[in-house]
Amino acid sequence: MSIxxxxxxxxxxxxxxxxxxxxxxxxAQKRVSVDGIIATDISQAIDKFSVIMVDNKIIQQxxxxxxxxxxxxxxxxxxxxxxxxxxxxxxxxxxxxxxKASLHIVGRLDLNTSGLVLLTNDSxxxxxxxxxxxxxxxxxxxxxxxxxxxxxxxxxxxGMYFSYENITTKSVTLNILSQHQAxxxxxxxxxxxxxxxxxxxxxxxxxxxxxxxxxxxxDEHLKTGKSKVISIKNNxxxxxx
Length: 241
Ligand code: URA
Fold this sequence. Notes:
- The chain is an alpha+beta fold.
- It folds into 2 domains: 5-60, RNA-binding S4 domain (Structural Genomics Hypothetical 15.5 Kd Protein In mrcA-pckA Intergenic Region, Chain A); 66-240, Pseudouridine synthase, CATH 3.30.2350.10.
- The protein is built from 7 helices and 17 strands.
- Strands 7, 8, 9, 10, 13, 14, 15, 16 and 17 form a 9-stranded mixed β-sheet that branches. Strands 3-2-5-6 form a 4-stranded antiparallel β-sheet, covered by helices on one side.
- A hairpin with a 2-residue loop joins strand 13 and strand 14 (181-186).
- The radius of gyration is 23 Å and the shape is elongated.
- The two termini are 35 Å apart.
- The structure holds uracil (URA).
């Protein structure tokens, strides 16, 4: 059983294949521990990363994993794909096969977008980062085919109506860096959002690169196609970057 949140008695019952009455007995006899502390409450909440022992034998011990990857163009943000290399294929020897299988992608990038991709097995962390309520800013460096003008700034800030989904995008910050380059900051992730927003000006995106997600900034020393294990920030202020 892979769990995000569960009751201790239910977890032990399923994992050890014993009925709840026997689980209650184990707890009463102080034979169960959660994160090194003897557990007695049948309804104690546990999660995927709680270390659970019965009679000093480990019955659950999952390590939270947080990976930063520098995605190249041409690699797909999926766990499997018949045609293209996936971000999981790029992890190489960094993790075991079992660890790789436990990962999910935190905010996908298109096939022809490069830059920062985060992967984890901790869905509470990824939900915090991707929930629309969190409004975590994501920064992108965009190269355009045609010259930019100040007109774009207001249009991006106002938000754009996409009839296909019947939504108006949240306000987007556009910082013009040069005639053909801009930094775009999104707080949501609509389908092909950046390309479609520039498409309104008939200005094709010729390169798109994500540089950060909240406080997680692509390490400038991490070469294209390479990945590394990172530690996460627990302080909410740091988290938003
Ligand atoms: N917007 C896009 O158009 N593509 C991406 O990969 C990310 C944002």
